[in-house]
């Protein structure tokens, strides 16, 4: 009997010990899980630095290039975490793509855009923001570019943390401006260029929102509000898909492939017209086949927009990789060139290994940290379905073409998020209009009160104000951080 009691006590002690071990494992897993992403990101940054040491070779400036490569890898990770969400968010929010599918497609097409059609040449001082001749010598220039690279990466990281999609290009511009002012004074900055960039803060989202709202109005008027929705869809959806194909053909000709072959705006529009017409004709039998047996309701229409939406997300990612990656690694390329030759007054080529760091960094950043901003853009600002997401994607392509025609610099981030806002606010206006019309026939005393009208707002105002505030302060915040970092580097370097 005593032996049985002793054995029971041993079993109870064992159970308690196992319970403690189980709790410890659970706690360790809970603590460790949030560190997995940063840990992998840190390893990637270290590998990028090692690659720089190998490819650059052993010179007196090797350490500088290694540090700059680490900053460039950090910047690329942040681009993947923040900027790519604008291309994939609408498709995920509309359930046309799963989160995993979006990440895989974006990683492939962003990398392809960067490596196949990425920027061969960039200005040593990003886009003429600062006059190179104002820099005293090569070391001052290198410190300024390092400060610009680190400050822009830190700002995009902070924006991702608070859930605000911001322009990485504007972050780099702000970083270059701040370091330029700290290095050579306010006279070093090309203020006319900065004024044009500041104007794009307003032009980009407004133009994107208006175009997206216009297409949503067309879809509602010509398809959704028709008695026979399926017949209307057979008539108009092939044309809408053709318009999207034409817009993206012109968009990629202008932006995504400009580094491979020089194409004028007129030629790009002609390419778009031919591609759009061909796809329109080809889609007529496809839509007719897809629409067979569909019920005459809005839910059925979502099927017809699914594939065009996925294709548009892939093409947007390709064009983004071709353009914005070069902007992000431009300061790194400038540092490499200045460290090799000592010349920082001319345009420089981006070394292939630098573009590889940018492309891989975007893919890792998207995989590790991208889902947060993808959900924000895709579902937390306003509710999207395939028709609304289609309008957002199409607006992004058309707005870039219109801006190129007008000679205006625009931000792809601001366009895409502005289009999401445009779709949401148009739905609010349209819903309010229909409610007012319904109230005219409503018995007295049954009117909808202000509280209920507030609950029916279709755009989250907190996200709206947070994002707009982040857009407004991106350039000055990145500039201030860059100036402080530059002064710190200069003090350390003596």
Automatic annotation (TrEMBL):
Q: Which InterPro entries match?
A: Phos_transporter (IPR001204)
Q: What residue intervals traverse the membrane?
A: 35-56, 62-80, 92-117, 140-160, 172-191, 197-216, 236-254, 260-282, 303-322, 350-369, 389-406, 412-429, 464-489
Q: Give the top-rank taxon of the lineage listed in the UniProt record for this protein.
A: Bacteria
Membrane topology (UniProt): Multi-pass membrane protein
Q: Where in the cell is it found?
A: Membrane
Q: Is Ribosomal protein given among the entry's keywords? A: no
Alphabetically ordered keywords of this record: Membrane, Phosphate transport, Transmembrane, Transmembrane helix, Transport
The signal sequence is none
Record family assignment: Belongs to the inorganic phosphate transporter (PiT) (TC 2.A.20) family.
- The name under which this protein is listed is Phosphate transporter
